[in-house]
Each structure stands twice: as C-alpha cells, then as structure tokens.
Design a protein that fits this description.
The protein is an all-alpha fold and about 290 residues long. The chain is built from 13 helices and no strands.
C-alpha cells in the first residue's frame, strides 16, 4: 500500500484534476453522455493523465536539487529520495507508453494534440519556465490543449469563442497562481527564479485583462456561437455564477491563496457554490 502511494506521489496523481478539462468541449456540445463520446472522453482523460504524469517525472528529475530546497516540493517522492531516479525513469517511461497506447484507440487528431502538449511541457521545463511572461503563456497553453484534446477525442468542433474563453481563463488562472507565489516571497523566489522578474502590479494587470476577456468571450460563446443548444434564459442565468467565480478567484489570488488553483475548488466554499450553480444552470440549458 505504501509503495502504491509512493507511485501516485511520483506520478503526481493529485494533479490529474486539471485533466478534467478534456470533458469541457463534449460537455458544452451536449454530447458528453452519449455512449461513444463518453467512452472516448474517458480514454482521453486517462491518456492525458498518464502523459502529464510522465512529463511531471521528467520535470521532477530535472528540478531535483531545487525541489529539495523547497519546503513543500521536498516531500515529493523523487526529491525526498523515497523513489530513486532510475526507478522514476522506469515509472515515467511506463506512463508515457500507456498514454501513447491509449491514444491509438482515439482519432489521430488527439494524438497530435497530446504530442503538442508534450512538446510544450518539455520546452517549458528546459527553457520557458526561466523566461518572464513566456512561462505564464506556456502553462496557460497546457490548459488550453487539454480542452482541445477533449474535442479532438470526441470529434466535437471547437467554436472560436470557446477557444478564446479557454485561453483567457487559463491566463487568468496562471497569472493568479504566480501572483500568490509572489506573495509568499521566501522559498519560491529561490526555487522559481522567474518570480524575481515579476512585480505584483504586472501580474495584476495580466489578471485584469484576462478576466475582462474571459467574461466577454464566455458571454459570446454562451449567448451566440456555441457548440450546443443552450437555452438563452439559462445561458443568461449561468453568467452570474461565472462572473462570481472569476471575481472570487481574483480575490483569492490577491490574498495569496491561489498557489495551487487546482485545489481551490475543494477548499474554498465561495468557489464551490459558484461552480455548483454554474454547472447546474449551464447543464439545464444544454441537456434539458
């Protein structure tokens, strides 16, 4: 049992929640609960999770020394020494093979998106994370590619406004993460050197621009060019909790509580309420 927990730690299974974005496009298109689409989306989710885990292993090996100086990252399986580098290489390789094998059961477009995600992540690990602004854009691109992968796996066409909302929403989330990291200056400045190049004002400007853009593009997607038949009254209703969730996330970023945005929805009651009301309203508008 301890070995299994160690493997999950090394694969960073707690990060797999990010890959739920692969369900966004088929859900928005109203096809998620059709058997074929659901199976394809689930395969895409598992494939993307395995690919992400393989890339996390590569990143953790590359960042081994700096992670050991970080109070939280030093507890990771590889950084702590609980899992040897050679064992981590084997584990990462198995995860990569599993991801590519599952991708063979999905449309070829999904494989190209998966490879693009892998290339973006490797470039980020080796270069982009050291370059101001580029690091924010590359992490945001990783989130966008997750949504694109879900569309590719299920054959759902992506509207321009869905893509725009995904891009600006991702930029907002990543800028908020960096803003919170900057608020906790100490160790993060040592292990994430790019923070030395950012100011709180600059990151706040990115967040304000991204928040305005995501609200506008979401409204255009929900009320206009959409992949699924969203009843207008419910599209309007969904806008209120969406706006609230965006503002709530900005508030949490401002207070320095958004270092791990993927966990916020599990710990912040405000985000939980906003997300629940949004899911219910948009779900009724699309599926009922």
């Amino acid at each position: 049992m301890q070995s299994f927990a160690l493997i999950l730690n090394a694969l960073r299974a707690n990060q797999w929640i990010k890959n739920l974005l692969v369900f966004a496009a088929p859900a928005g298109a109203g096809v998620l609960f059709e058997t074929e689409s659901l199976v394809d989306a689930l395969l895409a989710y598992v494939a993307f999770s395995l690919a992400a885990s393989a890339l996390y292993v590569v990143n953790d090996i590359a960042d081994l020394e700096t992670d050991r100086r970080h109070p939280r990252k030093s507890r990771r399986a590889i950084a702590s020494g609980a899992l040897s580098v050679s064992a981590a290489v084997v584990l990462g390789s198995l995860a990569a093979v599993g991801a590519l094998s599952l991708a063979l059961f999905l449309p070829r477009e999904f494989l190209w998106v998966l490879l693009a995600y892998g290339a973006n992540t490797l470039i980020y690990s080796w270069w982009g994370k050291h370059v101001p602004t580029v690091d924010v854009m590359q992490v945001a691109l990783g989130f966008v590619l997750r949504a694109v992968a879900g569309a590719a796996a299920t054959g759902v066409p992506l509207s321009q406004w869905f893509m725009a909302a995904a891009m600006f929403g991702s930029l907002l989330m990543v800028a908020g993460k960096r803003s919170s990291e900057l608020a906790h200056v100490g160790e993060d400045r040592q292990t994430r050197q790019v923070l030395n190049s950012y100011s709180a004002q600059y990151l706040h400007q990115i967040m304000v621009i991204s928040a305005a853009a995501v609200l506008l593009t979401y409204a255009l997607w929900a009320l206009g060019d959409t992949e699924g038949p969203i009843d207008e009254p419910w599209a309007l209703v969904s806008f209120a909790p969406f706006v609230y969730a965006v503002f709530r996330y900005m508030f949490l970023s401002d207070t320095g509580d958004a270092e791990q945005p993927e966990k916020l929805v599990f710990v912040d009651r405000g985000l939980q309420i906003g997300a629940l009301v949004w899911i219910v309203s948009i779900g009724i508008g699309i599926y009922l």
